Amino acid sequence: MSEPLLSIGEMAERTGVAPSALRFYEAEGLLSSTRTSGGQRRYRRSALRRVAFVRVAQRVGLSLEEIRDALATLPASRTPTKADWARLSASWRPRLDEQIAVLERLRDELSSCIGCGCLSLRECSLYNPSDWAAANGPGPRYLLADERPRLA
Predict the structure, then answer these.
(1) What percent of the chain lies above the pLDDT cut of 90?
(2) Which pTM was predicted?
(3) DSSP string for residues in 60-87
(4) How far is residue 106's CA from residue 122's CA, in Å, rounded to a whole number?
(5) Which of 86, 78, 83 is nearest to 44 (CA)?
(6) SS3 for 41?
(7) Residue 118: its pLDDT value, please?
(8) Element (H, E) at 117
């Protein structure tokens, strides 16, 4: 007996994702469907997990390219197993750890200098005199990873 397929409306209801987003995910290669003789999309139930994965990955700031590359490592011929998902998740750990570190720095330093954007003109003359941070590149250098100079 074959697995019952879900219509795009049923997928949208189950995933909380608009039908237009499901069509976009499909166009971007993140999701696949089959078509009925009338041309309507039908999704395997395993697509529910893929959509959940895409939503969470987007929520934590991963790009569509990163998500697509990760999903491409999953088997196309069968429903991914727990081991498949664990392998995929482990490959993202360094990327997520880096993002967590940036978010922690943002949380801890947003009310002071993030070098140099510049939120604190009083501290800027101490941490970034003559705009030294500009030599390291554009944007909030101290927040993104550059070491903030230590004051004597």
Answers:
(1) 24
(2) 0.65
(3) TT--HHHHHHHHTTS-SSS---HHHHHH
(4) 19
(5) 78
(6) strand
(7) 54
(8) none
**Distance between CA atoms of 128 and 135, rounded to whole angstroms?**
11
Going by pLDDT thresholds of 50, 70 and 90, the confidence category of residue 9 is very high
pLDDT tens digits for range 134-143: 777 776 666 6
Question: Which residue segments constitute the domains of the chain, with CATH numbers given?
Answer: 6-91 (1.10.1660.10), 110-152 (no CATH)
Over residues 76-94, the pLDDT tens digits come to 767 778 888 888 888 888 8
Start-to-end CA distance of the chain, whole Å, equals: 74
Residue labelled with tokens 């999309």: 41
Q: Determine the Cα–Cα distance for residues 7 and 61; give it in Å rounded to an integer.
A: 29
- Amino acid type, 36: T
CA atoms within 13 A on the CB side of 29: 12
Rounded to whole angstroms, how far apart are CA atoms 15 and 83?
Answer: 23
Is the per-residue pLDDT at 18 higher than 90? yes
- Given a contact cutoff of 8 angstroms between Cβ atoms, the answer to whether 31 and 51 are in contact is yes
Altogether, the residues listed in the chain come to a count of 152
Is the Cβ–Cβ distance between 72 and 80 less than 8 Å?
Answer: no
